[in-house]
């Protein structure tokens, strides 16, 4: 009897051990499954964050932490570097992806980028970092991130529009296969055009590429939030790279050590003269060279040009000789430093002689910096133009001799910085006065008085932007006078 009880007890013990072993294995499998699920969730979160936040995730934010706790850890980890306060990410239903290919020089592309951000925001689409022009006259191979701080651009606008450095892989493959839609939008279009015409295409194709993006959004008649966003991009989001910013600051420091300085945007380069057909003061062989160049570029549509007539209409950049007379007539101090923001002046020292005689303290970035400091910027015209842009913003006086894209954008930026002195030359009136003076019809005092009177209200002071209904090309450019973003504002008067 005792043996049976012992056997029964051993049997029950074996069953109990077997049951416990099965439960242990079950618990182990549950733990493994739970761990796998948690890892999978973290990987999904990392992928989502990576698409939006890019390299910031890889710079030390643990993928499974909330943004708030990660920010707290970032503050604790470094007492020397202050935590960057980011705007909250805007959440919206994404209607598709917008790619843009900018055309022209630095400032033409700059204003186009501002417009495209505003359009992407209005259409609730994801914007891919813009592609820059590499086929224009300057043939600059620079990418967006070579000129602008791309991470600042993306993160500073994340409460308005989602911006990615490139398309997600699936859509990128579609673009490579040509399964997309590309077009040039209609110039000077109202924002409603993009809602009614472009948005349906984005929804149909998922990805749309807009080409030739300059002057595609109208200057006036846009919603106030659109206008303010254009300014926010231009004055806040589009920062140059740290290397360009630091070199620009160095040039300004060198100039400031010697006293006040003026930036002269002397747009008297070969490409400008060939394009415009303005040959005042040029030798016959130079006229022929400029004409050949104009015919060599088929997209420069105007070929036969009367230089004298165009000059009288105020459509030519002032020559260096005309510029010297104008600055003297305005009583600009002859001892002031004159920083030449331009490329190589056509005609060289011969054409610069009168300006150098009137203003001997002529300087350029090439004369202020060591060649080694500019080595990485050579053959990159947009990066060189970015340096001139930074110096132009900081100058005591800014004088453009032609109302091109840089002149217009710098004018608007200087208004934004507190209406810094910007002399906007009335070229049509000036060449008439200069011709009268050279012919002896006006004495120097009469000439100087007339020049001052003509420019008394053309010093970058607050004014309304000119609106010409049905003629948008002739009205004032938005970026030269973005009054919606300035103080005092003329919103109540318009």
UniProtKB/TrEMBL annotation:
Q: Which UniProt keywords apply?
A: Carbohydrate metabolism, Fucose metabolism, Glycoprotein, Glycosyltransferase, Membrane, Signal-anchor, Transferase, Transmembrane, Transmembrane helix
Q: How does it sit in the membrane?
A: Single-pass type II membrane protein
Coiled-coil intervals in this record? none
The answer to whether keyword Protein transport applies is: no
Give the source's domain of life in one word: Eukaryota
The entry's localization annotation reads:
Membrane
Q: What is this protein called?
A: O-fucosyltransferase family protein
Q: Which residues cross the membrane?
A: 29-49
Classify the main location: membrane
Q: Which family does it belong to?
A: Belongs to the glycosyltransferase GT106 family.
Name its GO BP terms in alphabetical order.
fucose metabolic process
The UniProt entry, under Pfam families, shows: O-FucT (PF10250)
């Amino acid at each position: 009897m005792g043996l049976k009880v012992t056997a029964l007890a051993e049997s029950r013990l074996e069953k109990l051990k077997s049951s416990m072993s099965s439960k242990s294995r079950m618990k182990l499998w549950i733990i493994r499954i739970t761990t796998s699920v948690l890892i999978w969730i973290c990987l999904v979160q990392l992928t989502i964050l990576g698409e939006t936040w890019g390299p910031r995730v890889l710079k030390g934010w643990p993928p499974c932490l909330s943004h708030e706790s990660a920010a707290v850890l970032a503050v604790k980890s470094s007492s020397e570097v202050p935590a960057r306060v980011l705007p909250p990410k805007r959440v919206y239903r994404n209607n598709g992806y917008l790619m843009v290919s900018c055309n022209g020089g630095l400032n033409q592309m700059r204003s186009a980028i501002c417009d495209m951000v505003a359009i992407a925001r209005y259409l609730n689409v994801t914007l891919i970092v813009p592609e820059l022009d590499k086929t224009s006259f300057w043939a600059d191979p620079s990418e967006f991130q070579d000129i602008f701080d791309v991470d600042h651009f993306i993160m500073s606008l994340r409460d308005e529009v989602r911006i990615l450095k490139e398309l997600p892989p699936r859509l990128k493959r579609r673009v490579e296969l040509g399964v997309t839609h590309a077009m040039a939008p209609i110039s000077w279009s109202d924002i409603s055009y993009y809602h009614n015409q472009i948005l349906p295409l984005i929804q149909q194709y998922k990805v749309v590429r807009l080409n030739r993006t300059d002057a595609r959004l109208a200057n006036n008649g846009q919603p106030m939030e659109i206008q303010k966003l254009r300014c926010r991009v231009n004055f806040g989001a589009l920062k140059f790279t740290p290397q360009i910013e630091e070199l620009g600051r160095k040039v300004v420091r060198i100039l400031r050590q010697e006293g006040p300085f003026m930036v002269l945007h002397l747009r008297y380069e070969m490409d400008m003269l060939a394009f415009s057909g303005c040959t005042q003061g040029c030798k016959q062989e130079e006229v022929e060279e400029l004409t050949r160049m104009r015919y060599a570029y088929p997209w420069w549509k105007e070929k036969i040009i009367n230089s004298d007539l165009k000059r009288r209409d105020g459509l030519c950049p002032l020559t260096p000789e005309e510029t010297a007379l104008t600055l003297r007539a305005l009583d600009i101090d002859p001892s002031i430093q004159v920083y030449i923001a331009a490329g190589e002046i056509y005609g060289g020292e011969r054409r610069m002689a009168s300006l150098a005689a009137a203003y001997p303290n002529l300087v350029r970035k090439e004369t202020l910096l060591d060649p080694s400091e500019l080595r990485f910027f050579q053959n990159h015209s947009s990066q060189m133009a970015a340096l001139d842009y930074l110096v132009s913003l900081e100058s005591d006086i800014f004088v453009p001799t032609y109302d091109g894209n840089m002149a217009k954008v710098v004018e608007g930026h200087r208004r934004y910085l507190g209406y810094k002195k910007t002399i906007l030359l009335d070229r049509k009136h000036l060449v008439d006065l200069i011709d009268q003076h050279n012919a002896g019809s006006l004495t120097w005092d009469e000439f100087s008085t007339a020049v001052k009177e003509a420019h008394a209200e053309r010093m970058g002071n607050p004014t309304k932007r000119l609106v010409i209904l049905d003629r948008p090309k002739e009205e004032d450019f938005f970026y030269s006078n973005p009054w919606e973003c300035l103080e005092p504002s003329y919103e109540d008067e318009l």
